[in-house]
Write a structure and sequence with these properties.
This protein has 7 helices and 7 strands, in the order ββαααβαββαβαβα. It has a single domain, classed as Aminopeptidase. It is an alpha/beta fold. Strands 1-3-2-4-7-5-6 form a 7-stranded mixed β-sheet, with helices on both faces. The chain has helices spanning about 30-35, 40, 50-55, 115-145, 185-195, 210-215, 245-265; strands at about 5-10, 15-20, 65-70, 150-155, 170-175, 200, 220-230. Helix 5 links the parallel strand 5 (about 170-175) and strand 6 (about 200). It comes from Fulvivirga kasyanovii.
Length: about 270
């Protein structure tokens, strides 16, 4: 079986930061691949396309990265393992093992949706190994530096009517209403973001998914932040292809953000 994650080691002088990209995977395990609508999984639309590429400058800054191998349609690494809802405002959100896309299309063929036993199997094989590896990496960094920042990197189409009737802001920082990270780290990101012309929101409409909430333990010197960004900022107008010019602007902003965060973490 292919490992459910890929590690990109920090280069040069390591810093206490770990970037996670849980939704850029596109693989489907051979034993369940034929359970899906083959046209849809040829290019699963809910993938956070190219996010791992967008952040590929990070190892040169001493930052370790972990990226998911399998599609979120196999199992969504940013959902509660017991399928507890992340929000209580009535919004539609896909399940731990999604059965439809963000646009409402069924992704499985008839009679092939996963039952509880199959969901438990996927938790064991794909979900918990990702979490366990993050735990291991964070513990190593915290042992070396005394503190650590976990950054969960995401993207979304600019307009997803099943989730929100309006277009999404360009950048949405999530910290579960200040519970997952020190205020100084939050302020560092927001100040850096607001130096741009991009539309920035904080904890609205997303305040961080399960990964951010699970790993954010500021009282234990373990901080977590989630960044959701609209794909239009680094892809073409149809949000299909990587746009080098647009991505270049975002990459420069992200580099500046991490430069500032590394200084702030060092001062905590």
């Amino acid at each position: 079986m292919t490992e459910p994650y890929h590690i990109i080691e920090a280069e040069g002088k390591k810093v206490p930061v770990l970037i996670s990209v849980p939704h850029s995977g596109t693989l489907f395990p051979d034993n369940i691949k034929d359970h899906y609508d083959q046209k849809l999984i040829a290019a699963p639309d809910d993938t956070d396309w190219f996010v791992h590429k967008l952040y590929d400058f990070a190892p040169e800054m001493g930052i370790t990265m972990i990226t998911a191998t399998y599609s979120r349609w196999v199992i969504d690494l940013n959902r509660d393992p017991e399928s507890a809802p992340l929000y209580d405002d009535g919004r539609i959100i896909t399940e731990l093992c999604p059965t439809s896309s963000f646009s409402g299309e069924p992704i499985y063929l008839d009679h092939h949706m996963p039952d509880r036993k199959e969901i438990e199997r996927r938790l064991e094989l794909y979900y918990w190994p990702y979490y366990n590896k993050i735990t291991e990496l964070l513990n190593e960094l915290k042992a070396e530096f005394g503190k650590v920042l976990f950054w969960d990197a995401h993207s979304i189409r600019q307009y997803v009517p099943l989730i929100r009737k309006e277009i999404f802001p360009d950048l949405i920082l999530g910290d579960n209403k200040g519970k997952t990270a020190d205020d100084k780290l939050i302020e560092t990101v927001l100040t850096t973001f607001k130096s741009t012309r991009l539309k920035v929101e904080h904890n609205h409409p997303f305040r961080g998914g399960h990964l951010t909430r699970y790993f954010g333990k500021p009282d234990e010197n373990q901080h977590a932040l989630q960044l959701e960004m609209t794909k239009i900022n680094y892809m073409d107008n149809k949000e299909v292809h990587y746009d080098i010019e647009r991505a270049g602007h975002i990459r420069n902003l992200l580099k500046k953000t991490f430069e500032n965060l590394i200084k702030t973490v060092d001062e905590l």
